[in-house]
């Protein structure tokens, strides 16, 4: 069985944004861009969440919140170490 056309992420995100901003029916947009309506429904489910809404997390317990904050601290420390190494590398390189 042959697979259909492949679409890149940017096209998918732009299509979902177009649907959301213009409040058009998915079936109409599907006909306009030449994509199956069921495919667009899947894209809406995957990419339709607003980033601001995803960023706000609700925690079921203080322990879950603590774990999330500790993970964020670890990630930030790792990023800082990478930036420090890059700073030293570029400071030493001849110009």
TrEMBL record:
The keyword Metal-binding does not apply. Residues 59-86 form a coiled coil. It holds the Pfam family HTH_Tnp_1. Keywords: Coiled coil. The keyword Coiled coil applies. InterPro entries: Homeodomain-like_sf (IPR009057), RD_transcriptional_regulator (IPR051839), Transposase_8 (IPR002514). Gene3D superfamilies: Homeodomain-like. GO terms for molecular function: DNA binding; transposase activity. It comes from the Bacteria. GO terms for biological process: DNA transposition. This is Transposase.
């Amino acid at each position: 069985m042959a697979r259909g056309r492949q679409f890149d992420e940017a096209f998918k995100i732009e299509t979902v944004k177009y649907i959301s901003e213009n409040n058009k029916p998915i079936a109409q947009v599907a006909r306009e861009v030449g994509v199956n309506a069921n495919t667009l429904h899947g894209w809406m489910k995957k990419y339709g969440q607003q980033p601001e809404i995803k960023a706000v997390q609700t925690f079921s317990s203080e322990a879950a919140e603590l774990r999330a904050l500790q993970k964020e601290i670890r990630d930030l420390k790792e990023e800082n170490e990478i930036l420090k190494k890059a700073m030293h590398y570029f400071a030493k390189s001849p110009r």
